[in-house]
Amino acid sequence: MKLLAAEHLELHAERQAPTDLAVGGRLAGVPAGEVRFIRWSELASLPAKQLRLTGEFLPGEQVVTGLFLTDLWSALAVTADADALLATCNDGYTSVYRTAFIRTYRPFLVLAINGLPPEHWPPPGLNFNPGPYVISVSAEVVPAVAQLLDAGHKRPWGVTHLEVARFSDCAAGIFQGRWANPSDRASAGREIWINSCASCHQGPPDTFGGTKSDRSFEVLAAQAKLNTAYFKSYIRDPRSFVSTAKMEPHPHYTDAQLDALVAFVTGEVKP
Fold first, then answer.
1. Which of 154, 170, 186 is the endpoint of a domain?
2. Do the Cβ atoms of 63 and 133 come closer than 8 Å?
3. pTM for the model
């Protein structure tokens, strides 16, 4: 994806409404660490699509107005070295979208549900408010989405902030130190961590991740090393151990995938 002119989308210094989307990171003209805002009306003026999806928010078919992240990326003054979009939600949940993923799976920013913009959410029949924004992927848009290990981790709701980033920077902590020379299965586990676990868990220093979980990476690493069976079983069915666990169950993880995750978390290196 290439750098485009800044005038494609105006960025504002001040928030005016709860539906203003915060953006930052590697954007031309935006100093490091500063945040700008995009109005919902300006997002809606981009080439959004009317997507007829089944069960996206409510049972049955609904019309979702979606702005593909490819189009949003093209409308921002993204610097030439940027290759990832980081989404952060109002509950500390996060998602990472590398540009290869954006091109292949076509994630989209939800601007309206059955014609209702975020200021009128939740739509009738939905018992929680997913706003101010949702990012989603759908097998009805790209069939290959059905083959993703954890497509749900690419459907964050309550999105408040997007950061344009360089992936090698935001994931630096898990490519250095004891992860500089990982075994093959630790490398596979690292991808599971990036695309799934990092949604709620912070990783080692200098690694982007969510704050929704209250378990530190050090605690997870100790559990994976000292009580591997518990670590694996907890991932598959956390509420069988802690009835109030916030973590969603992952019963679909194979033994090989769990072994890979253990290898990553514990820092297994090549022999």
1. 170
2. no
3. 0.94
